[in-house]
From TrEMBL:
Transmembrane stretches, start-end: 6-27, 34-57, 63-81, 93-110, 122-140, 152-175, 187-211
Family matches, as Pfam families: GGDEF
This enzyme's EC code(s): 2.7.7.65
GGDEF domain sequence ranges: 251-383
InterPro entries: Diguanylate_Cyclase (IPR050469), GGDEF_dom (IPR000160), Nucleotide_cyclase (IPR029787), Rev_trsase/Diguanyl_cyclase (IPR043128)
Keywords: Membrane, Transmembrane, Transmembrane helix
Reaction equations catalysed: 2 GTP = 3',3'-c-di-GMP + 2 diphosphate
Protein name: diguanylate cyclase
C-alpha cells in the first residue's frame, strides 16, 4: 500500500505544479482563458489522489470511490473545454454535462460488481477513454499541424489508448475485490506509475503548445508597427524573403516605395496627433487599395513600401497612381478642410534572381526623382537587363 500511496502523493504534487504553471501562462498571455481551464483540470483531477488515499480508511468507501472517479472525469472535461477554447473548437456544454452525469451514474451502477472483471473494468475505464479521444479530436478538427500540436495530439491519443489498456491490466494484474482494496493492489502501482508519466508528458506538451503560441504572438507583435498596423521594416523584409525564394525564373513582382510629402510640416503646423492620424489614414488606404496577396510595411517615419507579387511594372504604376490620387483627395481629421496631404511614389520591377536590396535601391532612386520633379508624382525605375549582386548588402531607406 505504501508504494501506491507514495505515487498518489507524487501525482498530486505534480498536478499542482502544472496548475501553477498554467496560471502563470494565463497571466502572461493575452488569451488566458484556455490556460485557466487547463489549470482547473489539473487541480480537480488531482483530488482523486486524495480520495483514493483516504478511501481504505473511510467508513464510506462508496462515497470516496465515486468521488475519485468523478474528479478525474471532471478534470478531463475541463481539459476538453480548455483545449476547445485554445483551438477554437468549442464543446457543447449540455453534451459535455450529459456525458459526465451519465458516466457517474454508470459508475454508481457498477460499483458492486466484482473488481477485476471485464464488466467492471470496461464500464469504469470507457468514459476516460472517450473523453481523452474527444480531447484529441479537438486538435484534429482544428487542422493545426505544427510540431507542438502534433506532439500533444500523440500524447492524448496515447492517453486514450492507456485507458483501453487499463481494462486488460485491471483483469490481468488484479485491482482488488473492493474499492478499498485498490490502493494495495498490484494494479494500483502500475496505474499510478503510468499515470504519472502521462500526466507529466501531456502537461509538458500542453505547456509547449501555449508557450509556443505566446512566443509566436510576441514575434508577430514585434513585426507590426503599432501606429499604422502594417509590418515594420523587419516584418516587411521577413515576409518578402520566402516570397522571393519561391519566385523562380518568372515575374517576381514589383516594389513600390512611397513617402508622404512635407510630412514634417504637418507635425509642425497641426501637431503630432494630426501627423499620427495622417499615418493611420494612409496605412488604411494602402490596405484598402492594394491586392490581397500584396505585402505592405511602414519602413520608418513617413516612408512606406508595398510589394506586389506576380505584378509587372505597368500594373504597379497604375496602382501607385490610384493610391496617389486617393490620398490627394482625402480629408483627414485634425487638418483644416482645405488642407491636403500628398505622397510621392517610386516603382521598380523586381528582376528574377535580383536581391531585394538592389530592387529597393532602384525604387528609392525613382522616389527621389518623383520628389525632385515636384512631388505628388509616380516615377518608375528602369529595369536592368542583367543583375550584379552587391558584395555588401545595403538596404536604402529614410526614417
Amino acid at each position: 500500500m505504501g508504494g501506491a500511496i507514495s505515487l498518489l502523493a507524487v501525482n498530486f504534487i505534480v498536478a499542482q505544479i502544472f496548475a501553477v504553471a498554467f496560471l502563470i501562462v494565463a497571466a502572461k498571455s493575452r488569451s488566458g482563458r484556455p490556460a485557466i481551464w487547463i489549470a482547473g483540470c489539473f487541480v480537480v483531477a488531482s483530488l482523486s489522489a486524495v480520495f483514493e488515499a483516504v478511501l481504505p480508511f473511510s467508513a464510506f468507501p462508496r462515497l470516496f470511490a465515486i468521488a475519485a472517479f468523478a474528479s478525474v472525469l471532471a478534470g478531463f472535461s475541463l481539459l476538453r473545454v480548455g483545449l476547445g477554447l485554445h483551438y477554437q473548437v468549442p464543446v457543447q456544454p449540455a453534451l459535455l454535462a450529459a456525458f459526465f452525469v451519465a458516466s457517474v451514474i454508470v459508475d454508481l451502477l457498477i460499483y458492486d460488481l466484482p473488481r477485476g472483471t471485464l464488466q467492471h473494468a470496461f464500464f469504469y475505464q470507457m468514459p476516460f477513454f472517450l473523453i481523452q479521444a474527444w480531447c484529441a479530436s479537438t486538435i484534429v478538427r482544428s487542422r493545426r499541424q505544427n510540431y507542438a500540436d502534433r506532439t500533444l495530439l500523440c500524447l492524448l491519443v496515447l492517453s486514450a489508448a492507456y485507458y483501453l489498456a487499463k481494462i486488460y491490466a485491471a483483469i490481468a494484474a488484479g485491482s482488488g475485490r473492493t474499492a478499498a482494496d485498490y490502493v494495495s493492489s498490484p494494479f494500483a502501482l502500475i496505474s499510478q506509475a503510468l499515470g504519472a508519466m502521462l500526466i507529466v508528458g501531456t502537461g509538458l506538451a500542453m505547456l509547449g503548445v501555449m508557450v509556443k503560441d505566446i512566443i509566436d504572438d510576441a514575434r508577430a507583435s514585434s513585426e507590426i508597427d503599432a501606429l499604422s498596423g502594417l509590418y515594420n521594416r523587419r516584418g516587411f523584409v521577413e515576409r518578402l524573403a520566402p516570397m522571393l525564394e519561391r519566385r523562380g525564373a518568372g515575374n517576381p513582382g514589383a516594389l513600390v516605395l512611397t513617402d508622404l510629402d512635407h510630412f514634417k510640416r504637418v507635425n509642425d503646423s497641426y501637431g503630432h496627433h494630426a501627423g499620427d492620424e495622417v499615418i493611420r489614414r494612409f496605412s488604411s488606404l494602402l490596405r484598402e487599395l492594394m491586392p490581397s496577396r500584396a505585402v505592405a510595411g511602414r519602413l520608418g517615419g513617413e516612408e512606406f513600401a508595398v510589394f506586389l507579387p506576380l505584378t509587372d511594372l505597368s500594373e504597379a504604376r497604375v496602382l501607385a497612381h490610384g493610391i496617389r490620387a486617393a490620398m490627394a483627395s482625402m480629408q483627414i481629421d485634425g487638418l483644416p478642410e482645405k488642407a491636403t496631404v500628398t505622397a510621392s511614389f517610386g516603382v521598380a520591377a523586381v528582376v528574377a534572381n535580383e536581391p531585394l536590396e538592389l530592387a529597393m535601391q532602384r525604387a528609392d532612386k525613382a522616389l527621389y526623382a518623383a520628389k525632385a520633379a515636384g512631388r505628388n508624382r509616380v516615377e518608375c525605375a528602369e529595369t536592368p537587363e542583367h543583375v550584379v549582386k552587391p558584395a555588401v548588402p545595403h538596404w536604402v531607406g529614410r526614417s
